[in-house]
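Table 4 source record.
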Amino acid sequence: MVALTVTDRREGTRFVHASDVQGPLSPVAAAYLIRERPDLLYLSGPPAYLESQIGSALIERGIASLLRIIETTGSRVILDHHALRAGDYRDRLGRLWETGRVQTAAGFLGLADASLEAHRRDLWTARRKAPAPMPMRAPRLNAGRSSAMMNARRAPNHAKEGTTE
């Protein structure tokens, strides 16, 4: 885990950026974030889009860890890419939104969510171009004549220079 803590001593606030913590799924990461006592925490959130591969128990652990961080520190949380890749992220991570302390980066900026990652396949399908026809192959420069290198490759194996076979 790579995290950055920025402390504003004048304001008495702490911002922690730990984007790829994924939940946090790890108890070690959760303990670290609690120890940092952020006022504002920026992290990727539980990777609900991987639930079919890693199992719902791990996603639930990430949600529970994040809820514990919020309860313990009173932190506001900005969720980023991993949490938003599932098309149903609002429903799947509903317990986090219900706290009133969690929002997306777009929401933090006062913008509407545009979860492009959740709709990547549809967006690319709509933009995909038809296959381009392949041009006719140009005639080879040495058509009909073989090169010395190609002739050497076709020749039977002879002993290499300096060896005895």
